[in-house]
Design a protein that fits this description.
It is built from 33 helices and 17 strands. With 908 residues, the chain is α/β, with parallel strands linked by helices. The strands form 4 sheets. It has a 7-stranded parallel β-sheet, sandwiched between helices. β14 (771-782) and β15 (788-794) form a beta hairpin. The longest helix has 27 residues, at 726-752. The chain is elongated.
Length: 908
């Protein structure tokens, strides 16, 4: 589509959009149906002042000339209908045709109507049935108004119009709702058919509202399972209808998770949409050089089925690679290291961890593909990668089971089969084609090669759009996703090319914008009428209702008193849901006193006991999750011993002591569980903490107070930070510059004040009772008055209050170390002037920084703090660590790891 004569505004970015291609294809079909050629389309565009039509005509002329050179025998659907209409009057193949029956004639495109008229002119009787109120494609060229004029419809005289007075599909309640929808549709020349009533009483309508899309669809899945299991409705007699095809995969997946078998009316799915196929293609592309093996692609491969890692494992791998890099004196970031590791498997040989071994396996597979690239076909390369992955055995075993895991495994295997079929067809179609060409073709293709697997229509619920239920009917129909802005979608059709207006332009008919909007609303109502009119017994209308999404105004058409069900208010109506409920009742049932009174052995309540017996029956039938052996939380603790045996001695015969860092005292006192998780689990780091480390290092090695010299030190270590987005990096650089300027100002003020630096990053260690207090002091300074002051640099935004400074444990620990003579940088006999924080993230009194001070300890405060250290040491040595529920547990940006205690998905 590179023609430079496209109108202004049709730049390459617009022409690459799927919507642009779709409208251009629609315009080409309307052009063919109307008997126009590209030159005629160009002339019509010039006559009507439509430069988009003129440009499309020029493009289609070029397109057809290219197409004719190698596909002259192929026709699209519009060309095929036009050719058939021309041949029908004199074709001997139609001599034996005695009757033509047409259903849903309102959805026939103009080309099909021309064919019907050609057949009718041969004298063949035609019986056409339709309803202009239930069109699923009126905006694509259907002739809604022709049902009121049978002569014009059939192109023959003597045609008669018959209207049915009785509705034979829907009972009274459902028919009444269908009529409530159709009454709001503008007339298409006939309204008598709307009066048809149902003589059969009954029919049920249910409205479902979910707090989220997931809850909405979970409730729909539950209701479908109820209809199947309790009411005996076959899966094939149920359908779920959504407004647009883009919603079909979402609904399909949600229903599968609810253990509802699903089929779709889609012609197929692009192979790259399959997770398994996509990762095989990406890995092959990376190995062959078709895609750059950068950090983003590496992480995607590691997180996929070939890598088998989760995000925590990838993070640990990054940290291990980064630790090795720093130990070797390097400064490269984890992005570069990760890409290097997957490009060269030997790079991971020195990292001893499960995640490194998995990554190394993937890296060796990529290396094997690179070695075989020159002498192997794309089928052989894909098979080599698939065979080395070991996924065939894993997914094969999973697919033999039941439930969501089996469904996903089958989906993955279907995708792999479809990929190998596509590779086979590529080899047959293009014997000289290269593997990189095939990989790129598959990764960029929007059009499906083929369906991923045959669909069993007899045992599955149909998920489709309104046109997919034309000519069908079901016992149960669920119309899902009825949201404001989604259904109805009031956006004007054909915003780029307006293909629906081409027929009017050719026929000399004009239309206004008001009429167009009314037509759009009419189309939306017709599609809704089409969907709801397919239900024979039960109609379910579902939506999401929350602060961001509103239900569709179409739901106001429901009759008063329609039952409303909250989305996912009840447990899932599945075997897994039953097992989960029984487990909850059996383990959470109230214990009652035994027959001997309060002092006797307690027994389960009747409800809990019944649940336990039901679980035993399910476990005997091998129901997943029913047997207690597979439950979480019932395993015995791996150890009941304390972290440190305070009554024991070490290898040197000295009593065991607990290593206590000054910063950990406050953490432990706030929440022992958080301290434990941080110590045992390795804690977490982020950009802010990494930036703080760099600022501390720059201060330690500062040989100048000039801000540009200091900034050069920050800039040299900047690649060490892993920042995902460009905007975030720009924000962090501004923050880093501000911190550097504040630090430079403090150092300049200190220098002007006659201060002397006695030590930077000075370590100390004190053995005191149960504790071994050790840490590092940022700066030891001597002021102009000769007193020594301990300085701790802070880059965070938190500013302690005056009361908090008195008890600040980190500064107090430093003062205790100085009093014990454990800080070499402090001269013997020097007078200690207390300790202070230098906070460079905010200023006060015209300065860019703050200096909260902790006064010199007296004997009483020193002993009180020593007691705090001993209490913290004894607590850190224990075997039980309590979660102190407080503000830090729930605040979105505070503290952190102990939040696991209050997360419902974890703690229940």
């Amino acid at each position: 589509m590179g023609d430079s004569r496209w109108p202004r505004g049709f730049d390459p970015e617009v022409r690459r959009l799927r919507g642009f291609r779709t409208e251009l294809r629609e315009l080409a079909m309307r052009m063919t149906e109307l008997g126009l050629d590209p030159a005629g389309l160009t002339a019509t565009g010039e006559r009507m002042g439509r430069p988009a039509w003129s440009a499309a005509g020029r493009f289609l002329n070029s397109y057809q000339s290219v197409l004719d050179r190698f596909r002259a025998e192929y026709l699209d659907s519009a060309e095929l209908l036009a050719s058939a209409a021309l041949l029908a009057p004199g074709s001997p193949r139609l001599d034996r045709l005695r009757l033509l029956l047409i259903d849903d004639v309102q959805d026939l495109p103009r080309g099909a109507l021309d064919l019907v008229r050609s057949i009718a002119r041969r004298g063949v009787p035609v019986i056409a049935a339709g309803d202009p109120d239930v069109s699923g494609s009126g905006y694509r060229g259907g002739g809604l108004e022709l049902l009121a004029r049978p002569e014009q419809l059939l192109g023959a005289t003597g045609a008669r119009l018959l209207r049915l007075d009785v509705s034979h599909r829907q009972p009274a309640a459902l028919r009444a709702f269908t009529q409530a929808v159709t009454e709001r549709i503008g007339t298409a020349g006939a309204v008598g058919h709307r009066a048809a009533a149902s003589p059969e009483p009954g029919g049920a309508i249910l409205r479902i509202e979910g707090e989220s899309r997931a809850r909405e669809l979970a409730a729909v899945a539950r209701r479908l399972r109820e209809a199947h299991l309790l009411e005996g409705v076959a899966w094939k007699d149920m359908a779920v209808v959504v407004r647009s095809g883009s919603l079909v995969p979402l609904v399909e997946r949600a229903l599968r998770l609810g253990e509802v078998p699903v089929r779709t009316s889609a012609a197929g799915t692009p192979v790259r949409e399959s997770l398994a196929a996509r990762h095989l293609l990406l890995a092959t592309a990376a190995a062959l050089g078709a895609r750059e093996l950068d950090a983003a692609l590496c992480e995607e491969l590691l997180l996929g089925p070939l890598g088998g890692l989760d995000r925590i494992a990838v993070r640990r791998l990054r940290l291990a690679l980064r630790t090795e890099e720093l130990a070797g004196g390097g400064v490269r970031g984890s992005d570069e290291l990760l890409a290097e590791a997957l490009a060269a498997p030997e790079r991971l040989a020195t990292v001893d961890s499960p995640q490194a071994r998995r990554a190394a396996k993937l890296a060796r597979s990529l290396e094997r593909l690179r070695e075989r690239a020159e002498r192997s076909s794309v089928e052989e390369l894909l098979w080599s990668l698939w065979e080395r992955s070991g996924l065939a055995e894993i997914w094969g075993a999973q697919s033999a089971g039941s439930g969501p895991t089996a469904v996903e495994a089958n989906r993955h295997l279907d995708g792999v089969v479809a990929l190998f079929e596509a590779a086979r067809r590529f080899a047959e179609r293009s014997p000289d084609g290269s593997a990189p060409e095939f990989v790129e073709e598959m990764l960029l293709a929007d059009v499906p090669e083929d369906t991923l697997a045959p669909q069993a229509a007899e045992h599955a619920v149909l998920v489709t759009t309104p046109p997919g239920v034309v000519g069908r009917e079901f016992e149960v129909v669920a119309v899902a996703g009825l949201q404001e802005g989604v259904w109805p979608n009031r956006r004007l059709r054909g915003a780029i090319f307006a293909p629906q207006e081409l027929a009017e332009a050719v026929d000399g008919i004009g239309g206004g914008i008001v009429d167009r909007r009314r037509e759009v609303l009419g189309d939306e109502l017709r599609m809704l009428a089409l969907a709801v009119s397919r239900a024979r017994a039960l109609l379910v209308l579902s939506c999401t209702a929350n602060d961001e999404e509103e239900p569709s105004p179409f739901l106001r058409l429901l009759p008063p008193g329609t039952p409303v069900q909250a989305g996912a208010a009840e447990r899932p109506f599945t075997l897994r849901g039953l097992v989960g409920r029984l487990r909850r009742e059996a383990t959470g049932g109230v214990l009652e006193a035994g027959p001997g009174g309060p002092s006797s052995e307690p027994v389960l309540s009747a409800r809990a006991g019944g649940a336990a017996r039901a679980l035993a029956r399910l476990a005997a039938a091998d129901a997943v999750g029913a047997h207690p052996d597979g439950w979480y939380g019932l395993a015995q603790p791996s150890t009941v011993h304390p972290l440190v045996d305070l009554d024991g001695v070490n290898a040197e015969g000295e009593p065991n002591r607990v290593a206590v860092s000054p910063s950990a005292i406050d953490t432990f006192e706030t929440c022992p569980l958080h301290w434990f998780l941080d110590r045992v689990g390795g804690g977490s780091s982020n950009v802010s903490s990494g930036l703080g480390t760099i600022i501390h290092d720059v201060m330690e090695h500062a040989d100048s107070t000039d801000v540009e010299r200091l900034w050069a030190g920050v800039d040299a270590r900047w690649p060490e930070l892993v920042i995902e987005a460009g905007w975030q990096e720009a924000a962090e650089r501004r923050k880093a510059r501000s911190l550097t300027e504040a630090l430079a100002e403090y150092l300049q003020d200190f220098e002007r004040g006659g201060g002397e630096l006695l030590g930077a990053e000075t370590g100390f260690e004190i053995a005191d009772g149960r504790a071994r207090l050790r840490g590092t002091i940022d700066r030891v300074e001597r002021g102009a008055d000769g007193t020594v002051v301990i300085v701790d640099l802070k880059t965070g935004r938190s500013v302690p209050s005056a009361a908090a400074m008195v008890e600040h444990p980190q500064l107090a620990a430093y003062q205790l170390a100085v009093d014990a003579g454990a800080v070499p940088a402090v001269p013997e006999g020097a007078e200690l002037g207390g300790a202070k924080l230098v906070i460079v993230s905010s200023g006060v009194r015209g300065k860019r920084y703050r200096e909260p001070v902790q006064q010199r300890f007296d004997e009483e405060r020193r002993e009180a703090f020593r007691a705090r250290v001993q209490a913290a040491a004894e607590g850190m040595a224990g075997r039980v660590f309590l979660a102190r529920i407080d503000e830090h547990c729930l605040a979105p940006h505070a503290f952190g790891d102990c939040k696991v205690h209050v997360i419902g998905e974890v703690s229940g």
